[in-house]
Amino acid sequence: MALPTWDHPEPLAVDSAPVPEYGAGSLADVLPTLAAGMSVPDMTAAIPELTPADRNCVFLIDGLGWEQLRAHPDEAPFMTSLLASSRGGTGRPITAGYPATTATSLASIGTGLPPGAHGLPGYTARNPATGELMNQLRWNPWTDPRAWQPHPTIFQLADAVGVHTAQVSSPTFQNTPLTKVALSGGTFHGRLSGEERMDLAAEQLAAGDRSLVYTYYAEVDGKGHRFGIDSDPWRGQLMYVDRLVQRLAEQLPPRSALYVTADHGMIDIPFDEQHRIDFDEDWELRAGVALLGGEGRARHVYAVPGAQADVLTCWREVLGEQFWIASRDEAIAAGWFGPRVDERVYARLGDVIAAARDDVLIIASEREPKESAMVGNHGSMTAVEQLVPLLQVRS
To answer: Which among 149, 73, 66 is positioned nearest to 110, based on CA atoms?
Structure first.
């Protein structure tokens, strides 16, 4: 008697996902490496390709992935000229971390910790204390920031040993909980225009014999979400931010290093049922699910008690050819969130975790109407989302 055969391709193996380079070449490794070069105690130079500088500036461009930058040399001539300088002159990118999304990545770069340690594991995640989904970008519903993310930032640690430390960003972000838990330490300087931020970042670099300065620009990501990375508004923003990078690079004081990086890349997803799977209209995917967290390409799925195994089986059966589908423990063992997951973070992760490999989304048209309407998306471990530049200019 012949054994029954699987009637469609096997689901993607969990260990086939390209895990970020935690500990050697991820966003979480950037500031510890720079701080170690400035003799901040207990810091590890985790990215060995980088050489120390007395004054370091990190310019994070939200949404500008490595592959998008390389594909647009005409719109970004200055940054294109710096591609060979990336990652200490190797011409290679670094990885964002999983999920490749803003709240997670900003916490990673600011704390120097991977997501499993800092505890912001996605766009939305369950708060185990309340059972509610928490939006970690907008910090809604409210929870105590220091309880949610108790680790000090690299800026705080550097400031404590006499490094001149500053953040230069939009005034909107000065008092947000995300800024407090991820980027606080030293002084915050709010400036509206990109040009003002570049000029002030250069001034702040020059203000100390040892300086650590962070600056940020958001609208490349904003235009990508709304119009897509194949749009004129997105290309216009890339042209603008390229000029900002050059403006800052030309003002660097002596003994400085400027690093230009990003929190994630982006991919445009077509608006059809093949590419956008609607959780709110799919009874199979909804069965046994209490909460749907994360975002379209990086989902946390929280099962009703006792249904975890059934939900995992169903999601793997329905989506396993297009998504890496893992149980919480499988994702942790595979290192998706870093080499360890702290006890306080464990239950924030989904019982089932779905990371897109193909050009697909799991939308939720009723409960997430705005997110479901976005053209450009990100979150997963594919190269287009995960790889980010670490361009370098030194004076």
So the answer is: 149
Q: What is the pLDDT of residue 32?
A: 98
Q: CA-to-CA distance for 182 and 310, rounded, in angstroms?
A: 36
Q: How many CB atoms lie within 10 A of CB 305?
A: 8
CA distance 94 to 42: 23
Phi, psi of 391 (to 5 degrees): -65, 150
What's the burial of 35, exposed, middle or buried (CB within 10 Å: 0-12/13-18/19+)?
Answer: buried
Mean pLDDT of the chain: 96
289-295: strand order across its sheet: 289-295, 298-303, 352-356, 323-327
3-state secondary structure of 182: helix
Query: Which amino acid does the sequence have at 389?
Result: P
Q: What pLDDT is attached to residue 8?
A: 57
The pLDDT > 70 percentage for the chain reads 98
CA distance 104 to 22: 14
Query: What is the pTM for the complete model shown?
Result: 0.96
Contact yes or no for 122/345 (Cβ under 8 A): no
Residue 349: name the closest of 391, 308, 390, 288 by CA.
Answer: 308
User: 110, 31 in Cβ contact below 8 A?
Assistant: yes
Q: Across residues 92-113, what is the average pLDDT?
A: 98
User: What letter would DSSP give residue 26?
Assistant: B
